[in-house]
Amino acid sequence: MNADTKLFSGGEGAIFTVFNAKDTTPEADNTVNSLIIRCASSKECLRKLYIMFKDCVFAVGFSITADYHLAEDCVAETFVRLTQVKRFSEKKGDGKGFILTIARNVALELRRRYKKENINYFIQSYGEAEKTVEDSIYINQLLKNLNDVQRQTVILKCCAEMTFKQIGKIMKCPETTAKSRYKKAISILQEKAGEDQ
After folding, report:
1. Among 67-76, 131-140, 150-159, which stretch is predicted with the lowest mean pLDDT?
2. How far apart are the first and last CA of the chain?
3. Which whole-number Å values give the CA distances from 180 to 64, 74, 101, 174, 175, in the listed order?
């Protein structure tokens, strides 16, 4: 993986696929906020939000449900609910955090509704077929060592690239708690992977 390649995305038949950071179009948060305000009446605003956040919403949905199809349902339901938003402050709101909070709530509802006994997390990336399968199985095994809260924190930090403050807001905990959960999760993953801290 080169220095520019660091983001993850759902799609192309993979749970998370690696793509280049240059392929994304970063938007200012106030632009996101204004799009949220207008998306109930503008399909174009909703389309822009969908393009900007579908991958993050998918990652959050999958981290909670551990099911590709439920994560896809989470994406659809999140953007449907976004069109029904009545109270959101364009000046004070955190647009990305607001969208991912909706996604997390939707994913938790879906998991409660369709809870499965055997949960398997399967993360894929581009690469040679054999190496990709080996990596996916390896990551799958590592993620099983984390509890739900730790796994969600890692996904929000690594895949959705959120700050600990934003993660704390979404998960309804102090920023310091989000940070300590992340550090603990990374420590567990490193220990299980046999890497030095």
Report:
1. 131-140
2. 21
3. 20, 27, 20, 10, 9
pLDDT in tens, 75-91: 999 999 999 988 887 77
* Residue 63 contacts residue 150 (beta carbons within 8 Å): no
Helix/strand/coil for 30: helix
CATH of the domain at 44: 1.10.1740.10
Instruction: Give me the domain span that covers residue 174.
Output: 5-193
Please, which residues have CB within 8 angstroms of residue 15's CB and are 6 or more apart in sequence?
62, 68, 71, 122, 123, 124
The domain tally of the chain equals 1
Which of 47-82 are b and which e, b meaning 16 or more Cβ less than 10 Å from the residue's Cβ? ebbbebbbbbbbbbbbbbbbbbebbbbbbebbbeeb
Q: Which residue in the block uniquely carries the two structure tokens 């959050």?
A: 60
